[in-house]
Design brief:
The protein is an all-alpha fold. Helix content is 71%, strand content 0%. The protein contains four helices and no strands. The protein starts with 7 loop residues before the first helix and ends in a 5-residue tail after the last helix.
Length: 83
C-alpha cells in the first residue's frame, strides 16, 4: 500500500472537531463528504417544522456515520485518502 502524505493528526482533529461539515472526508478525499451537511440541513428543517421523531432519527444516523468514519479512518489514511 502507498503511504499517505496526509497527516493523521489533522485528519483525526477534523473528525473530532469538524465532522459535522464532512471536513475529514474532504481532507482525505473520501467520497461522501456531503452526507454530513445534507443531513444537518434536513435536521434543521425538521427542527423548524417541529418533527421531533425525524430529528431524532437523523441524529442516530449521524452518530452511526460518525462511528463508521472513525472505524475506517486508518484505512483511508493508509490508502492515501483516495478511495
Amino acid at each position: 500500500m502507498t503511504q499517505s502524505n496526509k497527516s493523521p493528526v489533522v485528519a483525526w482533529l477534523f473528525w473530532a472537531l469538524l465532522s459535522f461539515t464532512g471536513a475529514h472526508r474532504l481532507y482525505l478525499r473520501v467520497p461522501g463528504w456531503w452526507y454530513y451537511p445534507a443531513a444537518l440541513v434536513v435536521w434543521f428543517c425538521a427542527l423548524l417544522l417541529g418533527a421531533g421523531l425525524l430529528g431524532m432519527l437523523i441524529n442516530i444516523a449521524l452518530l452511526v456515520l460518525w462511528v463508521y468514519d472513525a472505524a475506517h479512518m486508518s484505512r483511508w489514511l493508509e490508502a492515501g485518502g483516495d478511495k
